[in-house]
Every structure is written in C-alpha cells, then in structure tokens.
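Deliverable D4.2, example record:
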Amino acid sequence: QVQLVESGGGSVQAGGSLRLSCGASGSIYCMAWFRQVPGKEREGVAAVYFGGNNPHYVDAVLGRFTITQDNVKNTGYLHMNDLRPEDTAMYYCAIDLWADPLEIATMTEADLSNWGQGTQVTVS
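Output generated by the structure prediction step:
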C-alpha cells in the first residue's frame, strides 16, 4: 500500500499563495488533488499523470493553481496563487492506477484508491 504524506497548508490572506506537498512512499501513476468543506462532498481540483506534463484543472482554479512534481523525490506539489475565501477547505492528495486526469471535474472520492491525510487551507 502506497502511503501519502501531505504538508503545506495554513492560513493566508486573500490574494496570497501556498504550496502543498504530497510525498509518496511508492510508485505513482495518477496524482489528483481534492478539497472538501464540512458538510460537502470531496471534490476534484487538479490531476496529472505523475512524471508527465499534462495537468488538468477544474474551472474554479484554472489559471490560479498549478501542479508540479519532483520525480526524484517522488513528491507532487499543488501551487495555489491568488487564493480566495472560497478556496478554504481541507485539501487531499490521492493516487490511483486507473484514474485519468482528464476526468478530474467528474472524479469522486471512490475513484481514487490511496489518500493522504489532508491539510487545511484557510483564506480570509
């Protein structure tokens, strides 16, 4: 079982930036980023084939969030710029063998097999 460890969350003012990290203990195929607000379902944010250069983003974050990855460190990053209060959520990274990053807008929690512990992002 691949283990994922997330970090980088925190509290920022509107317009600020954060970088979330997701380190994996094993092989990565698809890495996806989700966020969840209390009382709401976990929703996809961005996804990429790890090691590739084909990230996909939902409309709500397009142009503000960027995925990068370090193949040597086996770590993915979600760069979040121009943060807005509506971005406030618990952010999770996840990996899966079969998930397609093209489908990030319609992915659900059940579509990903391994999850990080989550990191809180608060924008005020």
